[in-house]
Structures are given as structure tokens and as C-alpha cells.
Specification:
Blueprint lengths: L17 H6 L1 E6 L2 H4 L12 E5 L6 H14 L4 E7 L6 H14 L4 E8 L2 E5 L1 H7 L2 H13 L1
Parallel strand pairs: 1-2, 1-3, 3-4
Antiparallel strand pairs: 4-5
Length: 147
């Protein structure tokens, strides 16, 4: 089975792209989802500007600077990140979005979604923040084991 990628990469999307200006919603998805689980992308294709990213190919700083450029040029209503759950590379996209929103404080809403065997699960901003701090997670696990 072969797969051809057709969705644009985030790094290749013009920062003031017509599709961004028209739709005012951006979905940044793990590149591999287009081939592995295209069904999770289908609900977004008509309403969102969909761009893909792969943290095995691009550095998080490059992608972050690109997203920063987009948010500085287009007043988006929403930014959604959809990644593969459990990927040590993909999780950085969630961290990146939180960092940009903390620094820039755009008006846009943000959402974090993960694909679990082709099913979408929404993850809260707090979970994304805590995921960056292994010591906090360890404390939570230790308390849960003794409580």
C-alpha cells in the first residue's frame, strides 16, 4: 500500500495564505496521519486550513517561528493541533503551541487533539503543560499509588 501526501506542510504554507485568511481556523496535524489515519482529518478539511508537520523532519523552533508569523499576520479564530498520541516527536507540537500562546497571547482559541487508533481524544491545556514537567507527573503518580 502506498500513500501520496497532498496536504501542505506548515513550513511551506505562506504566512498570510489566502486559505488562512478565508477560513480563519488552522489545523496543524501530524504528517503521518494523512496516510495512517486519514479519517481523523476528514472532519476538518472543509472548515480549516489544514497543514501538516513532522518533528522528525523539522525542528520545533522552525515550526514555532512559522506559526508565530502566521498569528502575527492573520487574525485566526482557532488553532488546533492534532497529533499521534504517544509520539515523542509529535508531543512537541502541543508544547510549541502553548509556548507561543503564552508569549503572544493571541485572541484565537486553541485546542489539543490526539489520535488514538484512529479515534480523536481532546486533551486540555493543563495536561499539555503538566506533560512538560516529569517531576510533577512523578509526584502525581506517587500520590495516586499511595492514596
Amino acid at each position: 500500500m502506498s500513500c501520496s501526501y497532498t496536504l501542505p506542510k506548515l513550513v511551506e504554507l505562506n504566512a498570510a495564505s489566502r486559505i488562512l485568511r478565508e477560513r480563519r481556523r488552522l489545523l496543524v496535524a501530524s504528517r503521518c496521519l494523512e496516510c495512517e489515519h486519514p479519517e481523523v482529518l476528514k472532519p476538518f478539511l472543509d472548515r480549516y486550513a489544514v497543514a501538516t508537520a513532522c518533528l522528525e523532519e523539522e525542528h520545533v523552533n522552525v515550526l514555532g517561528f512559522k506559526l508565530l508569523g502566521i498569528l502575527g499576520r492573520v487574525e485566526l479564530e482557532e488553532v488546533v493541533v492534532l497529533t499521534v498520541d504517544g509520539s515523542m516527536h509529535c508531543v512537541q507540537l502541543h508544547f510549541m503551541v502553548e509556548e507561543i500562546f503564552k508569549l503572544l497571547q493571541p485572541r484565537a482559541r486553541r485546542r489539543h487533539l490526539v489520535s488514538v487508533r484512529g479515534r480523536i481524544v481532546e486533551v486540555g491545556q493543563r495536561a499539555v503543560k503538566i506533560a512538560r514537567y516529569l517531576s510533577r507527573i512523578e509526584n502525581m503518580l506517587s500520590r495516586a499509588a499511595t492514596g
